[in-house]
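It is worth pausing here to work through a concrete case rather than discussing structure prediction in the abstract. The textbook approach is simple: state the sequence, then state the predicted structure, then interpret. We follow exactly that order.
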Amino acid sequence: MEIRFKIWVENDGVTLFGHGVEELLKGIDECRSLFAAAKKLKMSYRAAWGKIKDAEKRTGMQLVVTNGRKGMHLTENAQRIIMEFAKLENNVNELLHNCSNSLPIQDRESLQNTSATRPAPQTLEHSRLHMPHRAYA
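Step two, the predicted structure:
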């Protein structure tokens, strides 16, 4: 059993950074090209460019630098954001993993292994209490 979660960073209800931008920035870092990163993530170049520009506007930081023929690379700010976001996600993941061990919920495998030893649930008919009728005054 595991607890699932999704993290993003907001300010006044506006998303500043999340997994979509993180994956795109990692793709740019790996491919050194927005076009190649967008293709790898199965998104259009225009959508990828818009996502980067929106993230830069919302965070108030330049996240990528274009070097003409050398392609595109991440700024130090982008690298730091990715690193801190990963730390945050790892910390939350560890916390939730520890919490999931204390939940009194059995996982599916445990339920299957114990179902043979548990008595079958009674139907309403078998478990109904029979009370004698009383006359109320």
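Step three, interpretation. The helical segments are 19-31, 34-40, 45-59, 76-102, 108-114, 124-127. The beta strands are 9-11, 14-17, 64-66, 72-74.
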